[in-house]
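Can you make up a protein sequence with its backbone structure tokens?

===
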Amino acid sequence: MQRIARASRVKSLSAQQWRSCSRAALVNSRAEVGDVEGALVAFHEVVGKMPEGKQTMLFNTVLKAYANAGDFVGAEAWYESMLAKCIRLNSKTFGKLIESAAKAGHVAKAEFWLCALQDRPDLSLTTVTYNIVIDACAKAGDAPSAGAWLTRMQAARLSPNEISFNSVINSCALSGRSDEAESWLHRMLEAQLRPDRTSYNSVLSSFSRRGHVDRGAAWLQEMWRSSVPPDHISFTCMIDACAKSGHWMLALGWLEQFRMHQREQQAPAPDIVAYNAVLNACAKASDVAAALRVFEGVEVAVLRPDRLSYSAVVEAAARSSASDVVCEWVDRMEASPTITPDEACFNMAINGCAGQGDAHGAARWLLRMVRARLAPNSISFNTVIKACASKHDGPGALHWLRQMASSGLAPNIITYNTVARAFASAGNAGRVEDLFAEMAAASVHPDVVTWTMFFTACSKAQPSQRAKAEQALGTMLQSNVVPDKVMLSSARQALGAKRSVRLFEQHGLAATDGPDGSKIVKRLFTFILS
């Protein structure tokens, strides 16, 4: 009977242990997916049945739930409850606190808990723990701190692994620290670790952003020597570096190497990103013919050009002053069922027409931009206004100034001066004078160019507006505008030689017989500044 009772108790205990283990497994399954609420429910069902030696593990499992949820506030509160219940802490306890802060993006908290772990000589530090903090610093864009923690890891006699170095290298690359990224890659090699494509491509991308073709090429060759074949990211970085440095022929050469690599290694062929990088190189070099040839290569490769492809051709044409090509390719974009031109493309079309003195064409492109449900910006309007001014079309320039204001954009001093130039060239002093009133209402102060335009308008008016010019001179001298030689020359033409001499003397200025008015400028500066 005693043996039967003993066997019954053993069987009962085993069942209880089995149920406890089952509930503990449920806590862990909830923790794995960051389900804090579910983990806590399962925890409270099993905590009283778990032996004392398993309590730390159980409490740490709930910490894992907080960590996976990125809830560092909840994790810290749970840690306080562990202290209150005298639960034994171990390295995993601090590891989960560090992880919860890192996942929440609170780098300072992650660093705090790592320092707390360092202050516990009875607990062990691991490479994984340091990597969590290094990764948190890297993701926060703090490359110096990421590198500092890797150095501290080595000081703690722990060996950084590939993950440690890649985090620091990538952080340096993304923050524009290409020299430091390269230095950490050298240190990785010195640590006898094997860099992978991620390591090399991070350094290549950093040199790509700065247009350092030679340094990037050296590391790509190192990839080959280390039996780490470059991929499409590697080659695209090289092409992009060529684009940024203005070497479009080198960019074409790297594209050809990319094609050869694809044929020899049966690797993926150059994609549209690679071709766009070459097109961008052609655009930066202002070579529209080369851009057109590369675009043909996109079609031959049976790739679908995207907006960046078309935009690069448009930019190359704009930089080459090939306004007809600009307009043709923006037309093609609008005709495409999948590609739509953006504000920059329309502005280049507007500027192309304006550069040829085609004010009506520039205005038409601005209207097409509006019809495409894009908002013209100050550049759009100012370019059209400038085109009108180049044709001495004051009313047209004024119309577009009104349109600019009605669209919610504030005309600036350049806008007003351009309109003033259009009226001044036609001798319409009255309109220029009206602009002064509009500028005052818009809190835009006339500058030396504005006054020059007014004196020019007065001198070209029929009959000459000498009285207005004389009044304007007095008003200008009371303002803070510092005149230049061009303005003084315009004032003398508007006032007449003899009258200008008398007026300058009235204001304590000395006239000069020199053609450039240099002495007048000197005295005028002295008068205003005194």
